Amino acid sequence: EKMQPTIFVIFGGTGDLNARKLAPALYNLYLEGWLPKQFSIIGTGRTKLKDDEFRANLLKDINQFSRSGKVKSEQWDIFSKSLFYQASDLNDAETYKEFGVRIQQHETEWHTRANVIYYLAVAPNFFPIIAENLAKSKLTKDAERTRIVIEKPFGHDLESAKSLNQLLTRIFNERQIYRIDHYLGKETVQNIMAFRFANSILEPTWNRNYIDHVQISVTEQLGAGERAGYYDGSGALRDMIQNHLLQLLCIVAMEPPVSFSAEEVRNRKVDVMRAMRRFSPEDVRLSTVRGQYGGGWIEGKEVPGYRDELGSESNTETFAAVKFFVDNWRWQGVPFYLRTGKRMHQSASVITIQFKDVPHFMFPAAAADNISHNRLIISIQPEMSIRLQVQAKRPGLDMVLNTVDMVFDYKGTYTNQAPEAYETLLLDTMLGDQTLFMRGDQVEEAWDLIMPILNTWQNRKSLNFPNYSADSWGPESAEALIARDGFHWFTLP
Ligand code: BG6
């Protein structure tokens, strides 16, 4: 596809997200030839900076955070010419007028109209302010050429998500709105769709008749740290499950779409969300677990507990585990266990599909001493692999079975480096492809699903926090949640 002339206006241009993710991603897109010739980035923030200062800051950031290593000066000389900075006061109409002037200057210089992408890498209280002002200044009138990218969090609860959606859809057409969930841009997450829908051997077993249960586990060694102030108003359920983990669940559980188009794929994902069983307060008691980390040691370093980092006796959860059901024909009775937490023993995002055991085990009982279950293990990060665990005969004169792995490993299969999620997603905003972005109705369904959990938790405050220590697998009750059903959380070695 021919790339249109493009201008990115990055709100939060001096912020952390631009430094760590957006600027390095755009730079790598440039290196790999994905950017149009006529391209510019206008960073904006409260700080007053000259273009040169902005460029120097980003050079430092890209050197530190880019996957492609140290920046080469010939390349930087070209790329940095497309970086500009404009200080702004987001409440002031004048600011937006100036953006308009800048955009026109580029267009005049290029002798053509440009696509303009407004990227809101700012705190969520600015989303409505920016959106309204862009509209008032007529900067987003052209629905074909202008787009708006909204970073998470998309709402704090169902009500606020709905009103944000209402505000945005009053001003923009849905096809101009790009709601980011960066998990959808991860190479291994996109591959789940390729794996499911480009192979005929999986579909016949991908249902309640063969699958026993599904686990989606996203654990981090990192603590809340300097983000504790922000994080405390959120917690693990809002921060991770409402978006990232439920997105993963949708991709695992969705019906095969007719085509790989934004509407087909997103329709099928919404179908899953709508089929998910809603919780009564009693369900919340039985099917959810929350936790908060205390202090401890991680890899030889002493780390403080969450309340110490925050400096107050907060009841915000830094760990959550939930057992969900998808009430449709394919998944009736199959539990989906989701868990996520900070300051845990391992940083790993892993989906485990556990299959039912054989209907009749014909070998002598002793042959089964060392076997476990048939599992498909999709490792998203840091290991990028898909493994199928099967039983095999151990070489020897007796009939003894072992569980062995059939492995597809990115490292062993491909030599090219996988792009960062933000490279994929930024490129898609330029191409106008919304497949990997969240549609408004899906976000609302996800909030609708977790609201009863949030509300019930809110009302029940006698907690034994902290209830897990750093470097553990979370609270013991999380193990109990899954052990009651006869399973245990799977972890890669
Ligand atoms: C973010 C959360 O959306 O995702 C963070 O706000 C979390 O709390 C992060 O650490 C995890 O992303 P990744 O890509 O490092 O798995």
Automatic annotation (TrEMBL):
Binding-site residues, substrate: H182, K186, E220, D239, K342
Name of the molecule in the record: Glucose-6-phosphate 1-dehydrogenase
Summary of the function given for this chain in its UniProt record: Catalyzes the oxidation of glucose 6-phosphate to 6-phosphogluconolactone.
Keywords: Carbohydrate metabolism, Glucose metabolism, NADP, Oxidoreductase
Residue span(s) of domain Glucose-6-phosphate dehydrogenase C-terminal: 193-489
Assigned protein family: Belongs to the glucose-6-phosphate dehydrogenase family.
Metabolic or biological pathway, per its Swiss-Prot or TrEMBL entry: Carbohydrate degradation; pentose phosphate pathway; D-ribulose 5-phosphate from D-glucose 6-phosphate (oxidative stage): step 1/3
Domain of life: Bacteria
Catalytic-site annotation from UniProt: H244 (proton acceptor)
UniProt-annotated binding residues for NADP(+): R46, D89, L90, K152
Enzyme Commission code: 1.1.1.49
Catalytic reaction equation(s): D-glucose 6-phosphate + NADP(+) = 6-phospho-D-glucono-1,5-lactone + NADPH + H(+)
Gene Ontology terms describing biological process: glucose metabolic process; pentose-phosphate shunt, oxidative branch
InterPro entries in alphabetical order: G6P_DH, G6P_DH_AS, G6P_DH_C, G6P_DH_NAD-bd, NAD(P)-bd_dom_sf
Residue ranges occupied by any Glucose-6-phosphate dehydrogenase NAD-binding domain in the UniProt entry: 9-191
GO terms assigned for molecular function: glucose-6-phosphate dehydrogenase activity; NADP binding
Assigned GO CC terms: cytosol
